[in-house]
Amino acid sequence: MEVNQMQRSFLEYATVLFREGFLDGQFSQLQMLQDESNPDFVVEVVSLFFEDSQKLLNDLTTTLDQQNVDFKKIDAHIHQLKGSSSSIGAQRVKNACIAFRNFCDQQNLEGCMRCLQHVKQEYLLVKSKLEALLRLEQQIVAAGGAIPVLSEFS
Amino acid sequence: MAGEMAGNSTKKKISALVVDDDRLVRRIHGMLLTRFGMETNAVENGKEAVDLFASGKCYDLVFMDMEMPIMDGLKATQALREMGVSSTIVGVTSRTQEGETQAFMEAGLDACWEKPLTRDGIISLLDQVAKKLL
C-alpha cells in the first residue's frame, strides 16, 4: 500500500473515532505535541494510560468485591481514572467515570457494579481502537510518510 | 518562542512547575509547557513543591493539582503564599462540581481550571505572566 493511501486510511479511521466519541480534541492536542525530538510521545503517553487504567480497574474490582465496600476508595480510583482518561482524550471512558461517580456518591453498590462493567467495556474498546490507530501511524512512518495532522478535531 | 522573553543580553525562559501525583498528567502537561518554550519541572505532591521553593528555587508559573497524597494542593498553595511566594499559581483539577473549587481558590490561587491544560489556556496565561515579569 502506498503512503498516500495509508494516510487516507489513517484520517478516515481517526474521523470515525472522533465522530463516535471515542476520542476528543485532547487526543489531537497530544498528536500536535509530538515532533522530531519527541517522535514517540503519543505512543509513550498512550502506553502509560493503558498501564495506569488497567491497575485502576483491577483496584476498583477488588474494592467493590469487599464485604464492606469503601466508597471513599472507589471515589478516589474513579477520580484518577477520570483524570487520566480526560488527559488522553478518551472521552467515552471519561463520561463513564462521571456516571460511576454519581452512583458512588449515593453509595449504590449495584449501580457501581454496573458502572464498573461499563467503564471496563469502554476502556477495552478505546484500547483496541487506539492500538489500531497507532499501528496505522507506525506503518506510515515506516513507509517514510508524515503522520497527518488531526487539528480539525481539536 | 512564546515562553521566552528577550532580555538585554540573554533570553530568559518562563519557568513552570507541574505539581501532580498522576505521572500521565505530569508527562502531558510537562510536554505542553515545554513546547511553549518554558523551562519545566514536575513534582508529585504539594510538599515537594513547597520544599523546592523553600530551597530557593523559584518558578514563574505553578500548575497545582488539588488532590495529592502527603500534602494536597490546597495546603501547598496556602503554605506557598505564607512563605511570600508571588508566583502565578493555577489550580488544575478534575473536580468540577460547584463548591469543590471555592476553598481551593481561597487558599490563594490566581485561577482554577479544569483538567486537562489546553494550549488556549496557556496562551492567555503567558500574557499575564509576561506583564508581571516586565
UniProtKB/TrEMBL annotation, chain A:
Membrane-spanning intervals of the chain: none
Gene Ontology terms describing biological process: cytokinin-activated signaling pathway; phosphorelay signal transduction system
Record Gene3D superfamilies: HPT domain
PROSITE patterns: HPT
Top-level taxon: Eukaryota
Domain named HPt: residues: 38-143
Gene Ontology cellular component list: cytosol; nucleus
Phosphohistidine modifications at: H79
Protein name as catalogued: Histidine-containing phosphotransfer protein
UniProtKB/TrEMBL annotation, chain B:
Gene3D superfamilies: 3.40.50.2300
Membrane-spanning residues: none
Alphabetically ordered keywords of this record: Phosphoprotein
Residues found modified as 4-aspartylphosphate: D65
Domain Response regulatory stretches: 15-130
CDD domains in alphabetical order: REC_hyHK_CKI1_RcsC-like
Presence of keyword Protease: no
Taxonomy, superkingdom: Eukaryota
Keyword Cytoplasm set for record: no
PANTHER family named in the record: TWO-COMPONENT RESPONSE REGULATOR, TWO-COMPONENT RESPONSE REGULATOR ARR22
UniProt name for this protein: Response regulatory domain-containing protein
Organism: Penstemon smallii
Source species taxonomy: Eukaryota, Viridiplantae, Streptophyta, Embryophyta, Tracheophyta
